[in-house]
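Session log. Operator J.P. requested a structure for one protein chain; no other inputs attached. Running the standard single-chain path with token output.
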Amino acid sequence: MGFIGGLLGALFNALNKSLTIHRMRCLIPKGKIFRIIEAILVAMVTTTVAFVAAMTLGECKKLPVAPSQLNAENASASTISDSVRTYFCPVGTYNDMATLFFNPQEVAIKQLFHQEGAFSMPSLGIFFLCFFFLACWTYGTAVPSGLFVPCLLCGAAYGRFVATVLVNVLGYNKIYSGTFALVGAAAFLGGVVRMTISLTVILIESTNEISYGLPIMIVLMVAKWSGDLFNEGLYDIHVELRQIPLLGWEAPHNVGRLKAKHVMNTDLSFIFPHTRVQSIIQILRTTQHHAFPVVTIDTKSEEDLPTQEDMLTMQNIQYRKNSLLTRGMQQRRRCHSYSEQPLLYRGHSYNNTISESYQLNREDQFDMEATHSLRFHGIILRSHLVMLLKKNICYSYSSNLVSRNLLHLSRHKAECRL
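Structure written below.
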């Protein structure tokens, strides 16, 4: 049962992957309306299949009464009748197919686990096939659909079908069908999600039977091994399809001797606290990074200091002197800025005002061909830069320093989140 459950799980994953790829290529680019239409179509098909299967393929069976409860016969019959569906069956009987389709999934699972001889073999087989393809189609649509409980129900029907075959065909009368339903649910769910230890704990806690721990663990391991022969777990498949940056369990085989310097990029994009808008726009257009370091040039001697005519450089140096953050060493050829453009000013938490009292009129472009020591002050997100540009949070290069409006980013805290 574990091996077949793994194969069924692999088939489920392969079909759902194909549907998801088709959905991402054809439905999602067309807009939300098509995804809503797909969800309505799934609901209509599911309802139609449930009603048609219950009316034409369901069997009317007598309400079972537990023989060990002779003194509480009426109470037992009342308890069972509360969870079954008659659905065009005579009084005192119930429709087994309608009972599986029209009950909540949790109630249907309890019936498959605990009601002995309540479902016929054709009904179990048809319900398993219908629910298998409907659950495969539903997962991934624009509805809050789950995977755990539907897989448990589908696997419980598979296990109950195997138990019914053993009893009715092979003549094994001394078996309990509920145990096979539990094993089938574990096998199918393990074949779909490929989890072992966590599923074992969940199923043991749900059944409150520690004696089932070893059989369930063996079934889950066999189902995982058989499913891994064909594809990955369904969650891993969707993570890969949606390109979610998730760190895998194992590193690739060809990175055993790889060092950090082999994957790090030395051509970094960074931003000074006082930077031209044109430079920032060019950086945003030519890179795809989600964040940029904010740095200043770390001058080590007085002769390295620029003249006071170099306004932006002096402002960046003053920013470095007032900062208490750590130092970082990086190299990069910075984009050439253009003259007579507005300047973007990013304040910091230690000093949000410009205290320089000199009049300057040009920016000095340091030679970035050589290696410079840079002091790291923090990181600014790409979205923050875009928001600052949209809000025109900048000052003109040609404006008088005294007449400039002080830029307090706290005013734009709700928009920028800096």
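Operator note: The longest helix spans residues 2-27.
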